[in-house]
Amino acid sequence: MAEYKDGKLQLKNVTLVAMTSVNIQATIKALKYSMKDIDFGAVKLITHRRPRFMTRKIKFSKTTKLTNIDDFNYKMFYELGSHIDTEFALIVHADGFVVHPEKWQDEFLDYDYIGSPWPIPKEDDLISYRDKDNNLCRVGNSAGIRSKKLMDYPLEANIPWEGVLQDGIVWYNEDVLICCKYRHLFEEAGMSIAPLEVAKYYSHENMVPEVEGITPFAFHKWYGTNKDYPNFQETKLICKLEHFHFRALRKLKRIFKKKQN
Question: What's this model's pTM, rounded to 2 decimal places?
Fold first, then answer.
């Protein structure tokens, strides 16, 4: 049963984490928003350089710079586990984070992977969201919860870095690799991915029929009923102005000290 202390949900076996080299300040705001009513075992931002204006409650964890989306996918697949010391990690992005902590369910941690429900592909699409046996996979999404065991497994098992060919393009979406292409390997190693019946309460991205009328614990992307959730990317200009104001104030203080001396 969920434990609370001083009105805050206690998830001490979970690390709240984000990995990015872009939208840094928006990502920090997403981390802060996600932790305001939850006490996590740790909170980490994995990025290439220690950011300014980051609360002490968020720990900086260094990686090399992510220069494109495939860098992100590769590191999420092979490197993420090396940054995590708890049993689970709850992954957020600048555009996907916790919005209704009161909707937490302990059942979310019964699985090694849980994310938002995926849509059913069009009838003529025989590739999307399918495992090696062509079975539909209805749960994935990079903003979700993963077990430490699952995060460590790709490197330990030496799973090859091979993408999915679609429309003449090879895609390396790490959530698709885990939940579809290599799903059988994770399951053979004793890991499980949450079913749609549970995932629909965890997070929403695509407005599939199964999520109608449900208020989720988290979200990803501002689609449909997600449109009114906070958008910290829209405050980017404000962040720049705040940074400019801080630098100007610091400069004025230096000038004032020189005059006093």
Answer: 0.89
